[in-house]
């Protein structure tokens, strides 16, 4: 058993990468626990594994005391000095208590410890391996499906793809090979758990890096992505080289590059637009293929804008079920309100009308005030006594 155990430890270290010292330490602890459990011993038991010969020795550790109260834990000074004169009160002495029948228990315990360490090592290796693939694209094979997940075999581990990560226009069948995006890797109690997605915008970015060398080497940069997986996506790109057209480079000759990506995503439509520092121009680009007349920013909200488009392009700018406007808003980070040219003019006229009515009202009030002032003047003149009447009244007063 000892030679077999040593061989197993060497194989474990060589093939699984599990250090022999770690296994031996775990084995000694497990054997001590097994000895206490099977032989009803106290907690003062130590197990020593000889990594040269493979022998196992069990020791009971006892403390040297003047008077013994528990012979399982203590030994008298007289008994201790009989073994070695150098022992003193308070010293610990190891007594070998290895049972002859302990070999079977040791073998069973060793097997359990080694299997446990193998599982832990495999879990650790898988976690270390696939944690490096986080935020990367990897090809896997569909194994099975239930009401919660599609299970994808990545080689050493079975990844899971939740319903929110599955594309609505795709059906996943057993043995289908698909490209998935690793969103996260968790070291769970039951082992490493890998989560993958077909809907994450990161998948689209990685596919562009695979198909467009200029994106992979950084000449053209993807600035933002808005995606409704399986239906339509918008990608904003910019060039770090003035001589390279970012949109044309991403689309490729006769659209070959972008078409290769569309094919991998089940026909998902792609809009490639140029990213720019000018927010108004970027919003106009994001609403492609619609033509934009003007972009008006909200004074009360710096991330909101009203976009004016020709009347005949209003439905194109909004898109089916509002999709084009929705994706443009996600791509730019702006709240976008789209209005037709005639609607915008009516809004301006409606806003101007109260001002005209207010001006007319003010003028009417001025006229009324002027008329009132004129009438009072006439009445004052009519009611005032004449000069002759004044003189007659004065003469009468004199005669009296």
TrEMBL record:
GO BP annotations listed: DNA-templated transcription termination; transcription antitermination
Keywords, alphabetical: Cytoplasm, Elongation factor, Protein biosynthesis, RNA-binding, Transcription, Transcription antitermination, Transcription regulation, Transcription termination
GO annotation, cellular component aspect: cytosol
Primary subcellular site in the record, as a coarse category: cytoplasm
Superkingdom to which the source organism belongs: Bacteria
Database matches in InterPro entries: KH_dom-like_a/b, KH_NusA_2nd, KH_sf_prok-type, NA-bd_OB-fold, NusA_N_sf, S1_domain, TF_NusA, TF_NusA_bacterial
Domain S1 motif: 133-199
Subcellular location: Cytoplasm
Cited CDD domains: KH-II_NusA_rpt1, KH-II_NusA_rpt2, S1_NusA
GO molecular function: DNA-binding transcription factor activity; RNA binding; translation elongation factor activity
Chain residue ranges for the region called Disordered: 345-400
Residue ranges that the Swiss-Prot or TrEMBL entry lists as coiled coil: none
Gene3D superfamilies: 3.30.300.20, Nucleic acid-binding proteins, NusA, N-terminal domain
Low complexity bias locations: 345-355
Functional description taken from the UniProt entry: Participates in both transcription termination and antitermination.
UniProt family annotation: Belongs to the NusA family.
Subunit structure of this chain's protein: Monomer. Binds directly to the core enzyme of the DNA-dependent RNA polymerase and to nascent RNA.
Listed name of the protein: Transcription termination/antitermination protein NusA
Gene for this chain: nusA
